[in-house]
Specification:
There is one protein chain. The protein is low in regular secondary structure and about 90 residues long. The protein has 1 helix and 4 strands. The protein has one domain. Helix content is about 5%, strand content about 10%. The strands form 2 sheets. It has a two-stranded antiparallel sheet with strand order 1-4. It has a two-stranded antiparallel sheet with strand order 2-3. The protein binds iron/sulfur cluster (SF4). The site of iron/sulfur cluster has 15 residues, from strand 4.
């Protein structure tokens, strides 16, 4: 079990994907996401498709709008979740 202690208040202001530097790494979609720099391994990731500090909606740095925070995504604020990375 994760010992995350991040507020899940939906009204908390989040950054846009473009500001955070978010993008999705399609080539890694089917990879083992337990080892690497992915949203899946980030402290702020909320399974299965959200982030505590970056908004799901809006364009990412490539202008793409997926409407989700993908497990195979990444942004400049990535912080390792010690319970997941190994
Ligand atoms: S890397 Fe972390 S902070 Fe950035 S969008 Fe993914 S889960 Fe959120």
């Amino acid at each position: 079990m994760s010992s995350k202690n991040i507020p899940k208040n939906k009204n908390y202001p989040k950054l846009s994907k473009a500001t955070s530097g978010y993008l999705e790494l399609e080539n890694f979609e089917k990879s083992d996401l337990n080892t690497g720099y992915f949203c899946y391994d980030c402290l702020y990731f909320i399974e299965d498709d959200d982030c505590a500090i970056v908004r799901q909606q809006g364009p990412d740095v490539n202008g793409k709008e997926s409407g989700t925070i993908a497990p195979h995504g990444i942004c400049t604020l990535w912080t390792p979740d010690e319970n997941k990375t190994h």
